[in-house]
Amino acid sequence: MNGNMSMCSWEGVSCTSAGRVSGLVLGHASLEGTLPPEVGQLAGLTNLDLGNNEISGTLPPEVGRLAGLTYLDLQSNALSGTVP
């Protein structure tokens, strides 16, 4: 069993049949702080919705590793800089 399987049952997290995280839909989730570089380790991520939270700072360069990302929503946060 993949170590991510427990995360697959969390609200806002979707996974492939193999247990890889494929989506994080956490808009309006009252998240705050910075986005950790570990998000770049989610190689199977296709959908990242973090809109309408209180995320600040810059996007870590590791986000640029998400080659399969087809949907990205970061609106209404306090982010600065460019998308890697």
Key words describing this protein structure:
single chain, 84 residues, mainly beta, 3-stranded parallel sheet, globular
Give a summary of the structure in a few sentences.
Helix content is 0%, strand content 29%. With 84 residues, it is an all-beta fold.
Give the arrangement of secondary structure elements:
Blueprint: E1 13-15, E2 21-25, E3 32-33, E4 47-49, E5 54-58, E6 71-73, E7 78-80
Parallel strand pairs: 2-4, 3-5, 4-6, 5-7
Antiparallel strand pairs: 1-2
Verbal overview:
There is one protein chain. The chain has 84 residues and is an all-beta fold. 0% of the residues lie in helices and 29% in strands. It has no helices and seven strands. The protein has strands at 13-15, 21-25, 32-33, 47-49, 54-58, 71-73, 78-80. The strands form two sheets. Strands 1-2-4-6 form a four-stranded mixed β-sheet, with no helix packed on it. The model has no long low-confidence stretch (mean pLDDT 93).
